[in-house]
Amino acid sequence: MAIAIMSSGGDCAGMNPAIKYFVEYSIFKKLNPYFIYDGLEGLIDNKIKKATFEDVSGIIHLGGTIIRSSRSKRFFDKKYRAQAYKNLKKHKITKIIVLGGDGSFRAMDVFYNEFKIKFVGIPSTIDNDIFGTDYCLGVDTALNMIRSAVDAIRDTASSFRRAFVIETMGRECGYLALVSAIVSGAEICVIPEMPSDLEYQKNKIELEIKNGRKYILAIVAEGSQKTEEIKKWCENELKLETRVTVLGHIQRGGNPTVYDRLMASEFVKKSIDRIIEKDCKGDVIVYKDSKFDFKNINEIISNKYELPQNLIDLYKENYCQKCKG
Ligand code: F6P
Q: Relative to the CA of 222, which ligand 1 atom is closest?
């Protein structure tokens, strides 16, 4: 039985360990593993190749994805999806494990409805914004990359009397910014999911400055589109010289952390076990309340991810405490 793996959309650390485990576990289960290179674009262009142990040796510690990825526009067109199906038929592939986000899962759902190619989606995105799962592959490495960048910025920040505004990725989701603000002790966190309470922040920070604070850190999610506004606010309201760092694609790189490697193998093992079951059509593996489960693709794509309330509370309680102190 032939089974393929593909990465689609933004890459993330953890994909390579997943790809390695995919090959090893498929062979263990007596399946024939295939790689689809370049994501949905490669599926259209028949960049499909049988995978071997050799292909995956020495990759477990690498960020990115050795089978590469793409954001395909052509796949929206049925003509190209039919071409993709023809390619899969040539290799007798009827099952695909997809490392990607909900946009990729949505595309695979359309493909399943047309051509009955089964798939299991493994949530893989630094944005951590997929409904039904607390964790997406790669988010732990991204958070550690941000932590290390913020620690470094803090070194220089502490040598001046300045404000630093640090912009994180995440599309419309503030998860990366919120967790980073908590673990880095940032004074300000601006995310789309939380109204920014700048008047309150101003009073709090002014009090802190009076008590000896020399610099402040603000972490701003790209989805809020408020990086420039917060910079100006720091300059005009706090009267602090202000610098902006947009962390950008650094957040998508780096060696996968222990946690992302471990989760990559759990996700892959369970997804392969699931995809070979008769009733599997289009499912997504999730990790919710410390348990693995499968959700129907329709549930995933018709609901919106919400930030855990406990994280929002943690941040708020933290800055209120600081203010009191
Ligand atoms: O979805 C992952 C992500 O890194 C987002 O956080 C970011 O907005 C986007 O991808 C960047 O996309 P690209 O790599 O295509 O510029």
A: 8
